[in-house]
Amino acid sequence: METENEQQRDNLETKNQEQIDDQGTGTQKPEKIYDLQERLLAFARRIILMSKELPRIADYDGPRRQLINAATSVGANFEEADGALTKKDFINKLSISRKEAKETRYWLKVINGICSGERELTREIKEVEEIICILSSMLIKLGARKYR
Predict the structure, then answer these.
(1) Among residues 12, 24, 54, 86, which one has the fewest Cβ atoms lying within 10 Å of its Cβ?
(2) Has residue 43 been placed in a domain?
(3) In degrees, to the nearest 5, what angle opens at C-alpha 131 toward C-alphas 6 and 104?
(4) Is the pTM of this model over 0.85?
């Protein structure tokens, strides 16, 4: 027999997985995913799908590659932080994840600027800005000197 907390956790995991599956499919605006690891995974998937929609011309190859590398690195470094053995290592990996999120924001703005008439990237830019705020808040609460 499951406890109430286990049932709530299972319900939240099911809801988060449904949201991940729905994102990028053109359905209604999905609710926020509150598990940061799953949110970063969903964000990386959306960026990869969005990058496939960019025109296949040489001018877009560099920014496309940089965007995908940075966006997928945010979640990868967060996963590494989750497995850190020391607080110092955790802060270091979290800092790298935040830097990659900032780089992702930069490349999204570059692509948004050159894709006039193409898909508007405001949703992705807003999402990465929220991710940056979350990671910054975590670093501040951990007492990372740089973010005080």
Answers:
(1) 86
(2) yes
(3) 135
(4) no
**Token digits of residue 13:** 């995991």
Q: Note the residue count of the chain.
A: 148
Between 7-16, 72-81, 94-103, the lowest mean confidence (pLDDT) is in 7-16
45 vs 59: CA distance, rounded Å: 23
* Conformational region of residue 30, where left means phi above 0, alpha means psi within -120 to 50, and beta covers everything else: beta
Number of domains present in the structure of the chain? 1
Q: Compute how many other C-beta atoms are within 10 angstroms of the C-beta atom of residue 148.
A: 7
Query: Which residue is associated with the tokens 């000197």?
Result: 145
Longest alpha-carbon distance in the chain: 58
Query: How many other C-beta atoms are found inside a 10 Å radius of the C-beta of residue 61?
Result: 11
The long-range contacts involving 21-30, CB below 8 angstroms and separated by at least 24 positions, are 24/49, 24/50
Least confident range from 11-15, 63-67, 89-93: namely 11-15
Amino acid of residue 23: Q
CA 83 from centroid of its chain's CA atoms: 18
What CATH number should be reported for the domain holding residue 64?
1.20.1440.60
Residue-averaged pLDDT of the chain: 81
Look at residue 70 and give its three-state secondary structure: helix
